[in-house]
């Protein structure tokens, strides 16, 4: 068998063995898988007959021992019951909650004698931002930060006179609100407490609807969702899409969508039986974009590759092309 460039590099570096399955006498899909471990997931003996549940279009499979599979990052999951979510798509914008914003002013009129932080600095609650000499007492007093956050704006300079004007603008963006627009067609299904998946910058964050409030003069209401931004990944003003779980449906068998591969025009997963990884065509049902219902082709408790399945697909396709010549 000729190996793909990617797998060849792995073979040379790590000694992985990839070989075609033995077809012909003695080969049967009824064979019980051996018990071994890949990334902490154990194989299970399976007494069920597979012959009627999936076709035998593929006479090749990858054979990889457990240590090598772990080293190249192949991970498996166990097929079983799960849920499919019916989603309602919404869109909106990220905003900073009002209680996490502050406009800072001096308590008494006077001369600004010192400004301590610079714009962009992060300050703690109670930290001194400036010193002001009071006109009445001629005593210097501190102007402190009422909240922790980033110093966004500075409106005055050292040596200037202040008489109640805003000196600084602060904001704490560690928590943001996603304010999602809900139009009349979806209003009856959108409720507080429903799970929400916020999509932004190629990632997804899970939360739930905390409030539903009117938008003055607009033909929609706002569903407010708190978003943990302690890592600073998101920014106020950013546009986001969201999927609200309007319904959660229990199904008897689901798989992770990351496992699905297209092989010879069919949707397959790679089932692990001992050290052997076999492509298994599936009949699929409902999906929510993350998980998909399996109608046939896979049994509960079987193990299938969920991470790096493309490596196995590439090798099987390469072997098939070599056999054609």
UniProtKB/TrEMBL annotation:
<feature type="signal peptide">
    <location>
        <begin position="1"/>
        <end position="23"/>
    </location>
</feature>
<keyword id="KW-0732">Signal</keyword>
<protein>
    <submittedName>
        <fullName>Uncharacterized protein</fullName>
    </submittedName>
</protein>
<dbReference type="InterPro" id="IPR058649">
    <property type="entry name" value="CzcB_C"/>
</dbReference>
<dbReference type="InterPro" id="IPR011053">
    <property type="entry name" value="Single_hybrid_motif"/>
</dbReference>
<feature type="domain" description="CzcB-like C-terminal circularly permuted SH3-like">
    <location>
        <begin position="254"/>
        <end position="313"/>
    </location>
</feature>
<keyword id="KW-0813">Transport</keyword>
<dbReference type="GO" id="GO:0030288">
    <property type="term" value="C:outer membrane-bounded periplasmic space"/>
</dbReference>
<feature type="compositionally biased region" description="Basic and acidic residues">
    <location>
        <begin position="42"/>
        <end position="55"/>
    </location>
</feature>
<dbReference type="GO" id="GO:0060003">
    <property type="term" value="P:copper ion export"/>
</dbReference>
<dbReference type="Pfam" id="PF25975">
    <property type="entry name" value="CzcB_C"/>
</dbReference>
<dbReference type="GO" id="GO:0015679">
    <property type="term" value="P:plasma membrane copper ion transport"/>
</dbReference>
<dbReference type="InterPro" id="IPR051909">
    <property type="entry name" value="MFP_Cation_Efflux"/>
</dbReference>
<dbReference type="InterPro" id="IPR058647">
    <property type="entry name" value="BSH_CzcB-like"/>
</dbReference>
<dbReference type="GO" id="GO:0046914">
    <property type="term" value="F:transition metal ion binding"/>
</dbReference>
<feature type="domain" description="CzcB-like barrel-sandwich hybrid">
    <location>
        <begin position="100"/>
        <end position="172"/>
    </location>
</feature>
<feature type="region of interest" description="Disordered">
    <location>
        <begin position="21"/>
        <end position="59"/>
    </location>
</feature>
<dbReference type="Pfam" id="PF25973">
    <property type="entry name" value="BSH_CzcB"/>
</dbReference>
């Amino acid at each position: 068998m000729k190996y793909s460039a990617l797998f060849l590099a792995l073979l040379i570096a790590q000694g992985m063995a990839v070989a075609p399955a033995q077809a012909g006498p003695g080969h049967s899909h009824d064979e019980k898988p051996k018990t071994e471990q890949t990334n902490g997931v154990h194989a299970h003996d399976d007494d069920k007959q597979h012959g009627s549940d999936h076709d035998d279009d593929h006479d090749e499979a990858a054979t990889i021992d457990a240590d090598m599979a772990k080293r190249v990052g192949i991970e498996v999951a166990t097929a079983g019951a799960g849920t499919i979510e019916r989603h309602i798509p919404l869109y909106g914008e990220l905003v900073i909650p009002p209680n996490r914003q502050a406009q800072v002013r001096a308590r008494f009129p006077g001369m600004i004698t010192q400004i301590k932080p610079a714009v962009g600095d992060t300050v703690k609650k109670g930290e001194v931002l400036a010193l002001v000499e009071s006109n009445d007492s001629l005593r210097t007093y501190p102007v402190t930060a009422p909240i922790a956050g980033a110093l966004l704006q500075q409106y005055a300079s050292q040596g200037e006179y202040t008489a109640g004007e805003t000196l600084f603008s602060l904001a704490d963006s560690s928590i943001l609100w996603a304010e999602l627009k809900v139009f009349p067609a979806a209003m009856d299904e959108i409720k507080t407490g429903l799970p929400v998946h916020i999509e932004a910058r190629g990632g997804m964050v899970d939360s739930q609807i905390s409030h539903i409030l009117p938008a003055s003069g607009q033909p929609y209401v706002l569903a407010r969702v708190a978003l943990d931004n302690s890592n600073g990944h998101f920014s106020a003003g950013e546009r986001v899409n969201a999927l609200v779980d309007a319904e959660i449906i229990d199904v008897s068998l689901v798989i992770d969508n990351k496992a699905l591969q297209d092989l010879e025009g069919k949707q397959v997963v790679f089932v692990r039986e001992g050290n052997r990884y076999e492509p298994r065509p599936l009949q699929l049902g409902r999906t929510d974009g993350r998980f998909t219902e399996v109608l046939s082709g896979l049994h509960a408790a079987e193990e299938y590759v969920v991470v790096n399945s493309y490596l196995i697909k590439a090798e099987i396709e390469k072997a098939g092309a070599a056999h054609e010549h």
